[in-house]
Every structure is written in C-alpha cells, then in structure tokens.
Design a protein that fits this description.
Layout (H helix, E strand, L loop, with lengths): L5 H30 L4 E8 L9 E3 L5 E10 L6 E9 L7 E11 L4 E8 L5 E5 L5 E5 L8 E4 L9 E6 L6 E13 L47 E8 L5 E8 L19 H8 L4 H8 L12 H18 L1
Parallel strand pairs: 2-6
Antiparallel strand pairs: 1-3, 3-11, 4-5, 4-10, 5-6, 7-11, 8-9, 8-11, 12-13
Length: 323
C-alpha cells in the first residue's frame, strides 16, 4: 500500500488536476452568469443655443433649444440583454427648475435611470419634444460597426422606444440616442417699469377778443346852399312897327332859380323862351311874349301867327340894312 508505483502516482495527479480545472470552469461560469444581467446608462443635456457642452446640469431660457443624450451599454463577457427599451421623461410642468429622466430596461435585468437637472433661471418653463428629432445608433456587439444609425420613430418622450437585443456574443453592446427639445416658458420676467414722465400740459392761449368795429357816424349831408334867386331883373322892350304902334312891354323876372335846362328840350305845346330868342332875337321877344303868353309861341289866338312872324322878320331885316 505504501509503495505505489510511479505510474499510479502520475495518474492520480492528473485526476486531481482535472477535477480542479473543471471546478474552476464551473466557478467562472457561475460568476459570469451572475454579472451578465446588468445594463449601464448615461443621460446628459446640451444647451444648443449657448453651446454649453454635454453636462448633467443645464441652464436654459425661454425659446432656447436643448438636446438630450442617452447611452445604454452592456459589459463584455456578459449575456446579451433582450428587448432593451429606452424612455426619456421631460419636465412638462412649468417650473423654475426641472429634471429630465432617462430610463433603460430589458428582459431579465433591472431598469436603470440617469438624470439631467435644468435651471430655467427663475422663470416657470418646460421642455417640449421636437417631433422627428430622435436619432439612434446601435452597435450590438461593440465591434465598431453600427447595425443601425439614423432617424427613429417618435415615442421616446411618451412610451419609450425598443432598440432590440444588445451584447450579442459576450462582447457587450452599446446604444446611443439623441433628441431635440424646446424651452417654453409661461411668462417672462418683466423689468421694473420705468415711470413714464407726465408731459407738462401746454397752456392754451386765450384768444384776444376781436374788437368790434365802431360804426362811423353817418355824415350829415350838408345842404347845398340854396341857389340865390336872381331878382329885380326888369326887361323893357319897345317895338315900333310900320303902323306907328308902339308897344312897351315890361317883364319882371323875380325869384328865378338857376337851373340846368337842356337845350334840346322842347315842350309839347311849343318852343321855349330860349328857342324864341334864337328865332326872333332879343328885341322882339317881348312882343311875342306879350301876345302869346309866357314861354309859348303857338296858342289858340285869333290873330294870324304867320303874318305876325313875317312882319317881325321884315322889321328885323330892315333894321340890319339901316345899320
């Protein structure tokens, strides 16, 4: 018993070594199986309007654009994780600060969450997902070659998106997701109002009363001096005819008023005194007046007017020849 052959000893050593190797393999498999049910996630924010860089804390203002980034990975040497789902819960209730949560979950593993804190600078704001902005890159076995890289259907900000299995082949896997969101605030901070200066009212000038024109007194017309009557004019006219009849005619003109007498005015009953003077001359006018009345040559007389006129004219011509 004490003396074993050399061959037997070698066989025993080989048996024990084999058992140890097999036991180590089982231990490694068990340990690997226990560590393979893990997911890792990272969630970051980026203020695109201010080029803030990827951070876990972001300050943003109304109207600005921010991007969210999520990465989900598995470690090499672990079992793949099936039906990996990623969801982002945005701060949709307006508040001065907000939190965006990114959650990754898969079949047979616990879900894991990371967050980004948002500071809206004292103004109640929220983040609104921009439709069509989701982009996904999937490297299922971490070999550097993406099985998918491009736009993805909307849903990450509501029910989440399913990116399939990752970590195939025991080498691990990685998924990268980005979205775009707009900052919307319910109100903006109002600066202290600057008091508006009250303008000094411009006094309204009092209009000067328009003086009422004083009516000029109506001048009292000065009566033109009454023409001074020419009185006391006695005209004595003595006519002698061939029958030795002497007629003395005295004409008294009293109170004669100077007036303008038209030369061509002829009364309806005969020529005027001035007309008689031009016909008979100043000498025989007294005879004509004594016979036919004042200013009248033709009246209803019994004597023959034509005969008398011829006598007067003959007498007038005789006197001129004697002279």
């Amino acid at each position: 018993m004490k003396r074993l052959s050399k061959r037997s000893r070698l066989g025993l050593i080989a048996l024990v070594s084999g058992i140890l190797v097999m036991a180590g393999l089982f231990v490694n498999i068990a340990l690997s199986k226990a560590a393979g049910a893990s997911l890792f996630t990272t969630h970051l924010g980026f203020n695109m309007s201010e080029n803030s860089g990827w951070q876990h804390s972001i300050a943003a203002s109304d109207g600005q654009w921010v991007a969210n980034y999520v990465s989900v990975t598995t470690e090499p040497g672990t079992d793949p994780v099936s039906n990996v789902t990623v969801k982002i819960d945005l701060p949709t209730t307006p508040a001065p600060t907000g939190v965006s949560n990114a959650t990754a979950s898969g079949q047979g593993v616990s879900s894991i969450t990371d967050r980004v804190n948002y500071d809206f600078r004292g103004i109640p704001c929220k983040l609104t997902y921009e439709p069509g902005s989701t982009r996904v890159r999937i490297d299922r076995n971490r070999d550097g070659v993406a099985e998918f890289d491009g736009p993805w259907a909307d849903g990450i900000a509501s029910g989440g998106i399913n990116v399939g299995d990752i970590g195939i082949g025991g080498t691990g896997g990685a998924v990268q997701i980005s979205t775009k969101n707009r900052v919307e605030c319910t109100s903006t901070a109002s600066p202290s109002p600057t008091p508006t200066p009250t303008p000094t009212p411009t006094p309204t000038p009092t209009p000067s009363p328009t003086p009422s024109p004083t009516p000029s007194p109506t001048p009292t017309p000065n009566a033109s001096p009454s023409p001074t009557p020419v009185g006391g004019i006695n005209i004595t006219n003595t006519n002698t005819n061939n029958n030795s009849n002497t007629n003395n005619n005295n004409i008294n003109i009293t109170g004669t008023t100077t007036a303008s007498v038209p030369l061509k005015q002829t009364p309806a009953t005969g020529p005027s005194v001035l007309g008689l003077a031009s016909v008979f001359g100043t000498g025989p006018i007294g005879v004509a007046l004594s016979r036919y009345g004042k200013g009248r040559v033709f009246g209803k007389k019994d004597e023959d007017l034509m005969e008398t006129a011829r006598g007067l004219i003959s007498d007038r011509l005789g006197k001129r020849e004697n002279a």
